[in-house]
Design brief:
Elements (H helix, E strand, L loop, with lengths): L1 H16 L4 H16 L3 E2 L2 E2 L6 E4 L6 E4 L5 H10 L1 H5 L4
Antiparallel strand pairs: 1-2, 3-4
C-alpha cells in the first residue's frame, strides 16, 4: 500500500511539473501503443503515402496490418481461401 501511495505522489508531481493531467497521459500511452502495433502512421497513411490496411480472419480472429500484400500470413490466407474472400476481410 505504501508503494502505491508513493507512486501516486511521484506521478502527481511529474504531471504538475509538465502541466499535464491523467487524460493527457492516457491519450499519449494509447497513441504510443497504436504506433507500436502498426508502424509509423499518420492517420491511416504511412509517411510514403501508402494506406495501411488491416485484415482480420473471421475464423481465427488473427489480425494482419500491412501496406502491401506481401505479408506471409496474408499470402497464406489468399492461397487457402482465395484473394476475393480475403479482400472482404478488410477492416
Amino acid at each position: 500500500m505504501q508503494a502505491e501511495i508513493e507512486f501516486e505522489n511521484k506521478l502527481r508531481n511529474l504531471l504538475s511539473e509538465y502541466d499535464k493531467n491523467l487524460e493527457d497521459v492516457i491519450f499519449t500511452l494509447s497513441s504510443f501503443e497504436e504506433l507500436q502495433n502498426s508502424t509509423v502512421v499518420e492517420g491511416n497513411f504511412l509517411k510514403k503515402g501508402r494506406m495501411l490496411r488491416t485484415y482480420q480472419n473471421p475464423y481465427t480472429g488473427q489480425i494482419v496490418k500491412t501496406v502491401a500484400c506481401n505479408k506471409r500470413l496474408l499470402r497464406c490466407w489468399k492461397d487457402e481461401f482465395g484473394g476475393d474472400v480475403v479482400k472482404r476481410w478488410l477492416v
